[in-house]
Amino acid sequence: MIWVASFIVAFLLIQFILLFICLAFRFKNHVKSYKKVWPSISILVPARNEEANIQDCLAAVARLEYPHDKIQVILGNDGSTDNTGNIMQGWTESQRNWELLNILPSPDNFNMNGKANALAQMAKLAEGDFLLFTDADCRVGSQWAKEMVSAVLDANASLVTGITTLEEVSLFGKLQSLDWWLTLGMVKVMVDFNNNVTSMGNNMLVSRKAYESVGGFESLPFSVTEDFELAKAFSSFGYKSIHQVSEQSLVLTNAIPSYKDLLQQRKRWMRGAMGLGIFWKALLAIQVLFFPSIIFLILQSTLIGGVVWGLKIFIQGVFLRYFALKTNTRLAASSLLLFEFYYLIISWSTIVYYFWPAKITWKGRTYPFNNPK
Fold this sequence. Notes:
Helix content is 51%, strand content 14%. By secondary structure, it is α/β, with parallel strands linked by helices. The strands form three sheets. Strands 3-2-1-4-8-6-9 form a seven-stranded mixed sheet, with helices on both faces. A three-stranded mixed sheet has the order 5-10-7. The radius of gyration is 21 Å and the shape is globular. The model has no long low-confidence stretch (mean pLDDT 90).
């Protein structure tokens, strides 16, 4: 048993060291320069009961520094029962090339989740050469569109994932933000080795030609993580995907307000992660198994186990801070120790909750735990 625990702990330490080395020496900034002539783009913003967030989201979109005659903004009101639709309508009436689409229910509720259904309908109205996606609870920066478009053109790619972080208004939010930095840092390293893992629907650009070639969201199998499925489809068709991490591609979103809601989010994400290959599942398993392994080693030798755990926290913290600095974001060192215990609790409670036979609730809609098809 001690040899198994030692192997898992040693493997994870080596993994973090290699991740940092790769980030330091293999990091790819895909933007060489901004263009003088810009292609046309369509920005898609779906929303469902987002009256508390949609105003700030659309104000940020309106501040984008991109030729206004090259921007089309499509807003999707996905069955909102609050004031979201009225706020959206007000923006479309005051802005050029903005339009509002009231989303129709999917003819087959199991073919697409609610967001995929909304995006599929919105994409049919898109006229731009590239489609940019963000969510109603997100705030993009003024250079976001130029950065994402420059990345896709300079890298000759078909899909670009940006970088998203959380607004840190509470300690709970700060710890969630560190979780995002850790996950996306690992994703960045893998994608820079031309091994695409996933994408994020709240900060994503795709070529319209490639999107139509793969059949759009309506052609994807049912999933509660439609962005993950779209990235898989792009990869299966041989389209190049990249991850652009920079201050200009950074998008700010809201932290999950409660522990219960966070578990719902993680259950949905883990459902998507089950579509990864065996290699990635093994890496995720080792991440989780680190905690019982290190606790076992501490019980064998408090000093050795404690030093090793401290070393892991240090290396992990260095990786996190270095990665965040790529976007000119400084992470507070004081949160890194607390994050370790947060991660222990969240990772194991997510596993328990994932296998708990409960349905997935997302944006007021409930989906079966297992795929219906």
